[in-house]
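U., I forgot to send this yesterday:
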Amino acid sequence: MTNDIHTELDRTNPDYDSLVAFLRDRFEDELRWVASFNTETYGYKVRYIRPDLKTELSSYDLDVIIHRTIALLKRPYVEEVYTHLGHVQSLVLQHERATAVHVYLGDAEGFVVKIRAGNAITVPGFIDDCLTALYGSRS
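Result:
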């Protein structure tokens, strides 16, 4: 399914406000933060951060977290581990306090969604829903 949706959606105009609205509606206060990234420039943009985390995580802390994520979880590095399985489309990391969902939009671009631990997500359904929210309905 995710292969199909990656191909079917018009990926020229991402709407991160729509993605954040979808995620906030689905997870409410369980949504921790959302950030888009570019691994070539090591650039990122925080699209949403839960208000209490703004005080818990300094901008420096968040900067370190996202830059480490960009450095360690680059799409080419992840794909190199499992070359026989094809292109990686997402990566889910379950921690004690949160689940991190990394969605790759290309070789260098993507976004990360952090959700409080204990929330159920399914793959590929959750990824497809995020992509639909980000890019609109299928053509």
